[in-house]
Design a protein that fits this description.
273 residues; Fructose-1,6-Bisphosphatase, Chain A, domain 1; D-Maltodextrin-Binding Protein, domain 2; 2 domains; globular; magnesium; IMPase
């Protein structure tokens, strides 16, 4: 395992320990609302602080981009930037729904190079290093081999905070729904992307995400043999927040289904209009 990935795994497990302990006493947590339907608990902050402390202790010159505390350090002075979501799926966590994750990605010269997505409730650790493959615990991951959309299970994320593109999303959902075997929306984009890498989903789409929701999961998918792009298949997904992913055959089919529903506003949002 790459030394930087080893540190990221330790940091994710430390954060997972904080999350698991807090999950035993959910009614005692202090919870606040960052925006409509966007909750944050003291656990998010504690997990993020634990991750950052461990990463910067090992690599003090690296910069940080984290969901709760924002940017730290000068990415212009460092070749490395850690992208962190300490608890992706906070709403699930607060309701005792065990689908949430710790997500840690590392950019090296603006290229994703290391990835960890950890589900502490299930003790499932997804990892990847660029050029070295993706793994679930000790097992090598490959995306699914399904080629017919009608046989596929597709993941997504409903708009929950920003509803500007809700009508376009519903049109996409309505078009995809009868074409596939099923659609799932568990509520943690980082973990959903990891599921694509593991072949549990054949594809995934969502828009309005942040870089910390996607960075680690997207590297997992590409290292497992899958494809990731924005709503037109381009590589701007980390900036635009709009993402489509899947095995190579399903990826193209999802793009074709979604293309007619891309509004000028969505195209503008992802910088391709």
């Amino acid at each position: 395992m790459h030394p930087m990935l080893t540190i990221a795994v330790r940091a994710a497990r430390r954060a997972g320990g904080i999350i698991n302990r807090a999950a035993q006493n959910l009614d005692l947590l202090n919870v606040s609302r960052k925006a409509h339907n966007d909750f944050v608990s003291e656990v998010d902050g504690a997990a993020e602080n634990a991750i950052i402390e461990m990463l910067l202790d090992a690599y003090p010159d690296h910069s940080i981009l984290a969901e709760e505390s924002g940017a730290q350090g000068d990415p212009g002075k460092s070749e490395y930037q850690w992208i962190i979501d300490p608890l992706d799926g906070t709403t699930n966590f607060l309701h005792g729904f065990p689908h949430y994750s710790v997500s840690i990605g590392l950019m090296h010269k603006n290229v994703l190079s290391q990835a960890v997505v950890y589900n502490p409730a299930a003790n499932e650790l997804f990892t990847a290093s660029r050029g070295a493959g993706a793994y679930l615990n000790d097992h090598r991951l490959r995306v699914s081999k399904r080629s017919k959309l009608g046989d596929c299970l597709i993941g997504t994320g409903f708009p929950f905070r920003e509803f500007t593109h809700a009508e376009a999303y519903l049109a996409i959902f309505k078009d995809i729904m009868p074409r596939v075997a099923g659609i799932r929306r568990p509520g943690s984009a980082a973990l959903d992307l990891a599921y694509v890498a593991a072949g549990r989903y054949d594809g995934f789409w969502e828009f309005g995400l942040s870089a910390w929701d996607m960075a680690a999961g997207c590297l997992l998918i590409t290292e497992a043999g899958g494809l990731v792009g924005d709503m037109e298949g381009n590589d701007t997904y980390l900036k635009s927040g709009n993402v489509i992913a899947g095995n190579p055959k399903v990826f193209g089919q999802l793009l074709q289904v979604i293309a007619p529903h891309l509004t000028p506003e969505l195209k503008m949002a992802q910088g391709v209009g």
